[in-house]
Specification:
The chain is of the alpha+beta class. The protein is about 50% helix and about 15% strand. The chain has three domains: about 80 residues, no CATH class; about 90 residues, OB fold (Dihydrolipoamide Acetyltransferase, E2P) (Beta Barrel), CATH 2.40.50; about 160 residues, no CATH class. The chain starts with a helix and ends with a helix.
Length: about 375
């Protein structure tokens, strides 16, 4: 059995395992999150949801389906185990077909601007209708020195080029991690981020500023203008900030050196708490801190900013919040963050500034309004 045959058989077993009753509830939930209106009818879309669930979805236990499959199939060979684990490294994108031979397609990913040589586990006969210049929306997984098409694909004609470039730009802004598979783009983004951070600190005197919530838009506008004055390319879109919560009195605008602009609402309230730990007895302070700790949308950086000025006060505050008399922020703080903010530690933080190539920028400028 060659590698492709082995991969095809293994993938079939993995998908059957993912579709088994033991995961039915979590798979239903995955479909609801991907298709909240329950309107998935396209076979390729449904196949991609199942594929993501089988390869990447984080189960309630913290594992992936691949992890569970490996545990329940200890008889797999080392090669099969390694192949399965490699499939966690999925490439998603919108691909232009640049070439085709008897064994594989040569695909250019409009999202990360890298070239992939991809094969189908059903053979090239399954791709006989695909010609150079067409576009594919699909997922790829590693296979030896190349890649294997994973799940069904959506095929679009060459004259859909404008639509595909626009969609690729939107995907890149929404999911920067897909763009940063390209290490050159990641390096460029980090250089841009460092320059933008200099502008922010020059403007506000520090890497974060706490302001009344009604000043948020004007403060961000001032930053965007400062970036434009220095002709910084790749500036974040001016409408990137979320709607202002009506009950938040303050907001911290933080320029994280690794990711870029983050907003932390009610930050001023928590600054009061860490300056005066006795306030933890008040419900509003306690619930706000608990929300910061438990929310998956608030970075560990926010809590580090709060605890940094006075670690002793931080020990008292968290000791009372967690009802742990001997809690020490210097000793236990990092493990606490890793427990409640696990996803931030699973992968390296990435910039939110996404550099746009000359080709993509030219297309976006020239597309019809």
């Amino acid at each position: 059995m060659d590698m492709m045959e082995q991969a095809a058989a293994l993938k079939e077993r993995l998908v059957a395992f993912a579709l088994s009753p033991r995961f039915a509830r979590e798979l239903d939930r995955a479909f609801q999150l991907s298709d909240p209106d329950g309107l998935v009818e396209d076979e390729a879309t449904a196949s991609m949801i199942v594929d993501h669930f089988a390869l990447q979805h984080r189960l309630a236990s913290g594992d992936t389906v691949i992890d569970a499959f490996l545990r329940t199939h200890p008889d797999l060979s080392p090669q099969e185990q390694a192949l399965l684990l490699s499939w966690k490294d999925v490439v998603e994108g919108i691909f232009e077909v640049r070439g085709k031979d008897q064994e594989a397609l040569t695909l250019f990913n409009l999202v990360d601007e890298l070239v992939y040589r991809a094969r189908s586990n059903m053979g090239m006969s399954a791709l006989h209708t695909i010609d150079e210049g067409m576009f594919l929306i699909c997922r790829l997984v590693p296979l030896g020195d190349g890649w294997m098409i994973s799940a069904d694909i959506s095929v679009l004609p060459a004259d859909a080029r404008d639509e595909m470039f626009s969609q690729a730009a939107e995907v890149g802004l929404r999911k920067p991690a897909l763009v940063f598979r390209n290490q050159e783009k990641l390096a460029t983004a980090r250089r841009l981020l460092a320059k933008q951070r200099e502008v922010f600190i020059d403007l506000y005197g520090a890497e974060y500023v706490v302001v009344p919530t009604d000043q948020l838009r004007s403060r961000l506008d001032a930053f965007w203008r400062a970036l434009m004055d220095r002709a910084q390319p790749g500036a974040p879109p001016r409408d990137a900030e979320p709607d202002e919560p009506t009950d938040a009195e303050t907001v911290a605008i933080h320029f994280d050196p690794e990711t870029g602009i983050s907003l932390y609402f009610d930050f001023g309230l928590l600054q009061e708490l860490f300056a005066n730990p006795s306030l933890i007895g008040r419900r509003r302070y306690r619930e706000t801190l608990s929300s910061y700790l438990r929310s998956d949308d608030i970075s560990p950086a926010a809590i580090r900013l709060l605890t940094g000025p006075d670690p002793d006060n931080a020990s008292v505050v968290f000791g009372k919040l967690l009802k742990k008399k001997n809690f020490s922020w210097p000793e236990h703080g990092e493990s606490l963050l890793r427990r409640y903010k696990a996803r931030y530690f699973e992968t390296p933080p990435l910039p939110t500034t996404v550099p746009v190539s000359d080709t993509m920028a030219r297309h976006l400028r020239e597309r019809p309004a």
